[in-house]
Amino acid sequence: MDKSKLRRSLLKKRQSMSSEEWQQKSECLVKHLRFSPLFTQAQTVLAYFSFRKEPDLSTMFEDTERRWGFPRCVGKSLCWHSWKPGEALQKGKYGIFEPCGDAPTLEPSEVDLIIVPAVACDQRGYRLGYGGGFYDRMLSLSEWESKPTIGIIFEQAYLPQLPIDDWDTSLQGVCTENGFNFVVL
Hints:
Layout: H1 3-15, H2 19-34, H3 37-40, E1 44-46, E2 67-74, E3 77-83, E4 89-91, E5 97-99, E6 113-117, E7 120-122, E8 127-128, H4 134-139, E9 149-152, E10 158-159, E11 173-176, E12 179-182
Parallel strand pairs: 1-2, 1-6, 6-9, 7-10, 9-11
Antiparallel strand pairs: 2-3, 4-5, 7-8, 11-12
């Protein structure tokens, strides 16, 4: 199956979850993520605001021991800004909440962990995104390639193997409502 057909199928399946199931699975996933070694060691974490029934990580953002960063889409790139609960958000060009443009930016050297949204991940750590290439482009840059990454998905989208392209990079871990998995290549 090609990436676009697989993406449509998996998104349809995720959208069909009831709100109760989505929230319950999100809460379980957050518990596993909070205790993962990559997260417990991180001080500055890049994350995302849930969109279209992506796992909801919002309860984690109340953790004031960490500095949180969220993306803004600027052209074909992601620009990262720090954000704290209560600070203003705006909807970006894709309808996803993001920090306002005047929020302080985060440089790669400040980042300890990147929590990556995905449509699916496989057991090798490859992810299927939404097709825009934002994370693929970012993670291929030298200043980002050494940063630990965790793909966030529901178990139904954790597959044995995904189709990959030359530009795809593997994540270090994948977290679902069933647990945290280190990727072994």
